[in-house]
Design a protein that fits this description.
Largest sheet: 7 strands, mixed
Bound molecules: S-adenosyl-L-homocysteine
CATH architecture: 3-Layer(aba) Sandwich
Structural class: alpha/beta
Shape: globular
Number of strands: 7
CATH superfamily: Vaccinia Virus protein VP39
Mean pLDDT: 97
Distance between the termini: 21 Å
Radius of gyration: 16 Å
Number of domains: 1
Strand content: 15-25%
Helix content: 25-40%
CATH class: Alpha Beta
Order of helices and strands: HHEHEHEEEHEHEH
Length: about 200
């Protein structure tokens, strides 16, 4: 089919952790993503003091941007190293809190209070744990999810969205027979059927 051999590819959590350990993180953008600047108005839609979710957040600098604008940021990431690097690289003091609902998980929260990063798998989250969001910045998230888990991922994301929330999604377009991914190629038709 259109996505060819990527359909069955699986990247394990251990492989992601190893990428962080090896510094094999070519996906990280130190300067932040120009598309967030370009479409910021679409995300915010004139609203202030929003709750913004960063699925599979890594150490995305856009979390700092939005927090500095007065929004509350929540992220989730399996690599604790990534989260610690985020706070360290922005010189943000933080504290570690347990997450009683999720065994083995913890929450790293900026002392100022408006950035909360969950260290666990996104599939461990639910709206009863993290609440619902007014906006989502999905860059390097849907395209990093294993193709077999896309429906599960999107169904979960939908449960985490408030009624009037906006969802910015960045994908990459290329010939999936030429690279194994991630980032995986997600055809437009699939995005439409996933999100409805
Ligand atoms: N969104 C970030 C990172 C993209 S790379 C950015 O724009 O820079 C994808 C990230 O997802 C990696 O940091 C990886 O460790 C993390 N990840 C992979 N599977 C995950 C899962 N099931 N739950 C939470 N994080 C996950």
């Amino acid at each position: 089919t259109e996505i060819g051999s990527q359909k069955d590819r699986v990247v394990t959590e251990e492989e992601w952790l190893r990428k962080w350990e090896m510094g094999n993180i070519g996906f990280h953008k130190e300067q932040g993503h120009p598309l967030l600047q370009k479409y910021l108005d679409v995300l915010l839609n004139g609203r202030s003091g929003l709750r913004i979710f960063f699925p599979l957040c890594g150490k995305a600098v856009e979390m700092k941007w939005l927090a500095d604008m007065g929004h509350s940021v929540v992220g989730v990431e399996v690599s604790e190293q990534a989260l610690k690097e985020f706070f360290a690289e922005h010189s943000l003091p933080y504290c570690e809190e347990p997450v009683p609902e999720i065994s083995g998980a913890k929450k790293l929260r900026s002392t100022s209070g408006n950035i909360s990063l969950y260290c666990c798998s996104i599939y461990d989250l639910s709206s009863s744990i993290v609440g619902k969001f007014d906006g989502v910045w999905d860059r390097g998230a849907l395209v990093a999810v294993n193709p077999c888990d896309r429906q599960r991922y999107v169904s979960l994301m939908i449960t985490l969205m408030e009624k009037n929330s906006s969802y910015l999604l960045v994908t990459v377009s290329y010939d999936p027979n030429k690279h194994k991914g991630p980032p995986f190629y997600v055809p437009e038709s699939e995005i439409k059927s996933l999100f409805g």
